[in-house]
Amino acid sequence: MYNMALQCGPSKIGFWKNIIGAVKQVNLNLSKRSLSSSLSEPEQEQLTQDIKPFDEIPGPKSLPFIGTVYLYSLGVYSFENVIESGRKKYLKYGRIVREEIVPGKHTVWIFDPEDYKQLILYETTMFPSRKSHLAVEKYRKSRPEVYCSGGLLSTNGEEWWKLRREFQKDFSAPQAVQAYLPATDRIIKEFVNRQLLFPCDFDFMFVLSRLSLQLTCLIAFDEEFDSFSNQQLKYDSRSSQLIEAAFTANQTGFMMDRVGFQTRLWKRFSEASLFIESVAVELVKKKKRSLEKSNPLEYSEDYVPSLLELYLTMPSINYKDVIGMTVDLLLAGINATAFTASFALYHLSKNERVQDILRMEARDLLQSPEQAITPEILSSAHYARAVLKEVLRLNPISAGAERLLTEDIVLSGYHIPKGTNVVTQNQVSCRMDDYFVNPDVFLPERWMKGSPVFEKSNPYLVLPFGHGRRTCIARHLAEQQLLILLLRVVRDHMIRWNSEKPLGCKAIPINKPDQVVDLSFMKV
Ligand code: HEM
After folding, report:
1. The pTM is what?
2. I want to staple 154 with a disulfide (CB 3.0 to 4.6 A). Which of 133, 180, 250, 294 is the partner?
3. pLDDT single digits (tens) 80-117
4. ipTM given for this complex
5. Residue 108, number of CB atoms within 10 A of its CB
6. Residue 190: which H helix or E strand, with range?
7. CA distance 193 to 184
8. Which residues sit with their C-beta closer than 6 Å to ligand 1?
């Protein structure tokens, strides 16, 4: 019999946790019973026999000192092309793959939605941990005069939950983000009226990043960044430098998560982080000063405090944590929305039929281009929602969720010890015909109940914002922004893709368009 207790550590508790996990996995219909009291010895023995050891999980060969990095150097796999690399691993090794990119550090890639479900269920009783943004953590710990923690992105355990619990109040619920709807709608309306028909002989991502910066800064700093003014369009303006710095910090930070702290990467990361921090400190201080001078009794009845104002006035939130949070929002927000918007407009440009149906919906909901978008309009935009879901099925900004196990678990019948990095491969699964009909076809109707092509897919497949406690803190905000953008752009414009090559993605770590986003717009 395979001795699980020896394999995963000496503690009896660990042993029973494994067994409980195993019961969930092998589906012996025992999960609701108290195992320690109800399993007979033969049953326990049977269970431990059924669980296969970690070492037996198939995967690419790891070499001494270099792990599997040689396979990336040889071009068999690529850090940037996560879909293709994931697909190759799946085809060669199956639905669960073990890999040591760095010797001694195990990553387990999972491709089966039933395993995604197991991971999510397992997380409900603990603090979900990620082993990412190590550079953010190191940087912030070296600057205790500015930060008092690694922030939401890099912190784990109770320390993370302490931050998350406070910061998600007034932010994460769908009703809470409605407070930002009027300002978001105004910024997007101005963008569509002024920028869309402006001849764009450069990357449209440049334009979308500016829009995303404006929208994120409104939330993070309660500040209108006039990112499209002649002054701000200059390469050394605050807007241009912030966009560049967020991109550089994400890219170099990701590389250091993979290959360790290299001097050249660390230098670029630190410079970018220092720039973002300098803007954050200045703007949060400015807001604090203005709050100190204002008198809440003079606020009008319909006054809506900004998120930053709420954070600065909540006694439970430390001032240094507000700085950390505003930087996190810039790091996580600017690229994510701009990249998703690029993929959304691309898919629409390649699907005139979908554009036409979306235009009909947009004109039905908005009698004129000037009409304000309300929460009711957004909740009636069923087709726009299906379009967005389909965009995020094919082009999520993150290929899957990454978790550092804090307890042992059983996945696909294998024992996975705590300390292992497990990565779900939703983007790969979402493009498999095991789970979707014609998976590479962009078909929003597959999400519309009542449509002849409606598919009842596994709910754990499309999770572009993650799931559970550690889900994207800004999910509803981002969805609100993207829906407004889709409705406003398509209502009066035809979108055209000008490149011969279809748009793909490369991971930096989040999925960025792999070429210039060559879009143009015609008034219709
Ligand atoms: C389409 C747009 C977006 C997508 C698809 C997206 C997706 C994600 C995903 C997959 C995660 C990781 C979840 C996990 O580990 O389970 C995440 C985390 C996060 N996102 Fe987003 N995001 C988007 C936009 C934004 C925006 C606009 C902001 C801020 C303004 C933001 C702020 C964050 C933060 C702070 C976290 C870390 C949360 C934590 O660890 O507690 N995201 N996002």
Report:
1. 0.90
2. 133
3. 898 899 999 999 999 999 999 888 889 999 999 999 99
4. 0.99
5. 24
6. helix 181-195
7. 14
8. 130, 152-153, 164, 216, 219, 328-329, 332-333, 336-337, 340, 397-398, 401, 464-466, 470-474, 477-478
pLDDT of residue 225: 86
- In ligand 1, the atom with minimum distance to the C-alpha of 328 is 35
| Alpha-carbon distance values, 83 to 314, 406, 426 (Å) | 43, 27, 10
Give the ligand 1 atom nearest the CA of 479: 1
Question: 427 Cβ partners below 8 Å, 6+ apart?
Answer: 82, 83, 86, 396, 399, 400, 511
What string of DSSP letters covers 352-408? HHHHHHHHHHHHHH-SSTTSPP-HHHHHH-HHHHHHHHHHHHH--SSSS-EEE-SS-
**Distance from C-alpha of 356 to C-alpha of 491, rounded to nearest angstrom:** 9
Number of residues assigned to the chain = 524
* Residue 355, amino acid: Q
Atom number of ligand 1 nearest to Cα 402: 15
Spatial CB neighbours of 461, under 8 Å, sequence gap ≥ 6: 113, 116, 393, 426, 429, 430, 435
Domain ranges of the chain: 112-401+432-523
Per-residue pLDDT reduced to its tens digit, 140-178: 999 999 999 999 999 999 999 999 999 998 787 777 888
